[in-house]
From TrEMBL:
GO terms for molecular function: metal ion binding. Keywords: Iron, Metal-binding. Residues 12-143 form the Hemerythrin-like domain. This is Hemerythrin-like metal-binding protein. SUPFAM superfamilies: Hemerythrin-like. CDD domains: Hemerythrin. InterPro entries: Hemerythrin, Hemerythrin-like, Hemerythrin-like_sf, Hemerythrin_metal-bd.
Length: 174
């Protein structure tokens, strides 16, 4: 996996690897012409891996003793993102007439059902992925860099730290 433009490295190996894996899932949704069932499978994997990744970040917060507003704001941001992805998945799975026309058609149908605004410069499926990409770029360059700074302040240089405690409970690849 190469480092995507705009995706900031935190210096915390397991966290950075997670970000790259999430990026790869976004790219799969964006670049491949997926059938509806394939797109749903990727979105489910994205949700499962996101929960796993957020759990790792929250274990790191516990390990370094991060408390108060920085911790609560970070966890709150995680909860909002998970809820948005869950809601999107629920909408996709509960459509009245399932079709096999792919992610773009699924998103267009949801937009019509819920009278959501459209952005003409991107097809609907790419708008969903654009939201995901925008979120990870902003989250990693903001909250996750702050987490790395707190980690370094609490435990010393990141390069000298053992993050093996973050390596357990990895979800199975689907």
């Amino acid at each position: 996996m190469s480092q995507p433009t705009g995706l900031v490295r935190t210096g915390i190996g397991p966290i950075d690897r997670d970000h790259l894996h999430l990026w790869d899932l976004f790219q799969t949704l964006l670049e491949k012409d997926l059938r509806e069932d394939e797109a749903l499978a990727v979105l489910k994997e994205l949700l499962a891996y996101t929960r796993y990744h957020f759990g790792r970040e929250e274990r790191l917060m516990q390990e370094i003793g991060l408390t108060g507003e920085p911790r609560q704001a970070h966890i709150h941001e995680h909860a909002i993102f998970v809820k948005r992805v869950e809601n999107f998945l629920e909408l996709l799975q509960n459509r009245a007439a399932p079709k096999t026309t792919g992610l773009q058609a699924m998103v267009e149908e949801i937009q019509k059902m819920h009278q959501l605004p459209t952005l003409p410069q991107l097809d609907p499926a790419k708008r969903v992925v654009a939201f995901l990409v925008d979120w990870i770029l902003n989250h990693t360059s903001g909250m996750d860099v702050e987490l790395a700074n707190h980690t370094e302040a609490a435990k010393g240089p990141l390069a000298n730290q053992d993050f093996s405690f973050l390596e357990s409970d990895r979800p199975a690849a689907s």
